[in-house]
Amino acid sequence: MPGDRIIFGAAAIPEPDRDWLAAAERLPIESIWQGGHLLPPTSTGEAITRLALMAAWTERVRVGTAVLQLPLYPPVIAAKQLADLDSRTGGRVSVGVGVGGEFPKEFEAVGVPLKERGPRTDEAMEILRALWNGGPVTHHGRFFDFDDLELRPVRSPGADAPEMRPGGPPLLVSGRKAPAMRRAARLGDGWMPYLMSPDAYARSVAAIEDEARAAGRDLAGFEWMMYLYCCVRRDGDRARNDVEAFLGGAYGDKPRAMLDRIAPSGTPEEVAARLQKYVDAGVRHFVISPAAPDDTLEVVTLAAEEVLPRLTLPVPAAPGGVAP
């Protein structure tokens, strides 16, 4: 089951910004994340470019993609780019991966059939891991075919220069449906869903553990994460209005009651009560994505300084299933 502490990360919304990142890095958070698209309908960035900016403009925190739409990328290119970033940051990179599909024209533009995005992601994850493990790699798969390729991450000059961690960055699977859970259980180093209620998260934990058990896989060290749209304000009504404006239209004009189940909002006390339910369901690493049109640093600050300290780990059950 999940680890023995609760940690927070933050999404750099709306775009990675040097001053925002510097302020966020002074908070008690441990990671910063951004995703991206190739051909989004608005002028937003691409995932690996954003990751590179975050890597350059931070010093302490993990930086990660949330998420990289892996089937859109030739895996050898993605493996090299991500390995170089991990090496130059001394192992601070994490790779959230997803299958995408929101914008079909992205797939058309790069010649990837939309219906192949799942199996392409699975095969690409296998290739990334093989190349990051070092040595010559030969791969003959359904979509990719090559012999004796060896990836050598770039290093900064100097004997004490940082380098890529052994085995490469963790691959954290995102999604909400059963195929993503199977992918996490069999190929991932962690699970990072989004727009999921605490009850649904608990079911996903059980499904992943069952799938891993069936595959004979030990989930020791597996990261139980949640990419959580939320808004924390001193004024709880303002926070709820922010979430409704930010997410309601984007996800089909969902009513406020439904949004509250998947995107907590309110005062620090109110949001902490909602997040505690996720902790009880198994989440140990929250990525706080501010669902707000402005003042996003305030959301992250209140979350890190006033919500996180209110969260507690469940009391372990004593032998026989009875809590002590």
From TrEMBL:
The keyword Cell membrane does not apply. Pfam families: Bac_luciferase. The keyword Oxidoreductase applies. It is an enzyme of class 1 (oxidoreductase). GO terms for molecular function: oxidoreductase activity. Keywords: Oxidoreductase. Its EC number is 1.-.-.-. Residues 19-285 form the Luciferase-like domain. This is LLM class flavin-dependent oxidoreductase. It comes from Actinomadura rugatobispora.
